[in-house]
Amino acid sequence: MTHLADRKDLAERLRYPVAAASVDASTAASIEALWSQLTHSGAPTTPGRTEEFLVGDEIFAASVVLGRFETWAWADLILSSLARETNLLLPGTRILLLGTGTLADALASAVARFGGRLEVAAQDPVGLIDIAGRHGVPVWTVTDGEIVSSGIDIVLVTGRNHPSLVREAIAPTQRPLVAIDATAPGSTGGLTTVGDTVGTVRGLTELSGARPIFVVPRPSPAALGSVGGDIRALYAVLRSALEPVDADVALAEVLLA
Question: If you average pLDDT over residues 218-237, what whole number do you get?
Answer without folding.
Answer: 85
